[in-house]
Structure formats: structure tokens, C-alpha cells
Specification:
single chain; globular; 197 residues; alpha/beta
Amino acid sequence: MFESNITKAEINELPLDRYGGEIVLVDKAEQIKGAFEEINQHQFVGFDTETKPVFVKGQFNDVALVQIGIPNKVFLIRINLTGLTKEIISFFENSAIKKLGVGLRDDIIFLQKIVPFNATGFVELNEMVNEIDIEANGLRKLTAIILGFRISKNAQVSNWEAKVLNPKQQRYAATDAWVCLEMYNKLTALKLVKIPE
């Protein structure tokens, strides 16, 4: 059904695609409650984070952005501005909502450095695809293998703490959460993987 691996050259031959739907930018604490009232209605969501890059060894920045994808909408939550509110922590600790992502271990560790919480309901897509002999790998590679298109990583090292996130940054960040949900939906629709309990 799917190739077990794909080369960088093969990825570069694929058509480029990105999320084209609604993006909700949450940059004020008072917007959080309404955002999570909507997010919490969904059992499966795409999940990712972004952090301002550092170029000096030994330094690190806190996570600046949390991306949560639901069908037809992606929320970009600027936690560097809003803080990790009780609604966000409750979401991280809610085992009934499956937060689907790639490389989640590091995301969780860095979020817990800001506010300690009990992470539950996080589903690592790399582990899920191991069951069907797809080599565990990064988001770009998995997207190419499962969805058949290439996603841009050009904005990855941009400033996620900027005063204003430009449209390119927003679209890039939304795409990362969107493809996680899309990959999960495709894998489960084809009955290739078990739905996590």
C-alpha cells in the first residue's frame, strides 16, 4: 500500500501542498476559553508546536506556539503571549482527546518545562506507522509517504516570538497540525492501523 521509505530526491519530485482552510490565531488569554470549547468537541486533533530557534549551543527558548488542527480549522495558540492557561493544561491532560503528532516526546518535554502537567492522550504517528512497516521518521517524510505530497519547511527556523506572525508563518504552522490529522484519517479509513483507545 505504502512505500516503507522515501528519499529526499523523491520527496522533492512530489507536488507541494499546504493547508488552505481557516486559521484562527489566538494571541490573547481571553480568546482561550472559546477556542477550547470548540477544540474539546473533537476526539481526534492534529498537534504540533513551534519554538524560536537558537543558534548558540546551550541556550534554549520556550515553546512559543501550539498548533491544534480540527476538521476544516487550525488554531494557532501563541502561548508566549497567552501563557499556558488552565484550559490548555486540561486539554493536555485529557485522555479522551487524542492529540496526533510526530516527534511528540520533545514537544511534551519542552511544554512541561513551562508548566508541569500529566500528558495523556498524545498519539505518536511514528509509532503507529511502525505497525505497517513504514520507517519512523520526520513529518515531511511521513506526509510524502502517506499523503503523496511535499510540505515546505522554509519557515521552520523563523522567529515564532515575532510581534506579528506573517501569513507564511501561519500557513506553515497550520499545515504541520493539519497533515497529522489528515494522515491519521487516511490510515484509519484504510483500516491499516488501530484507533487508539
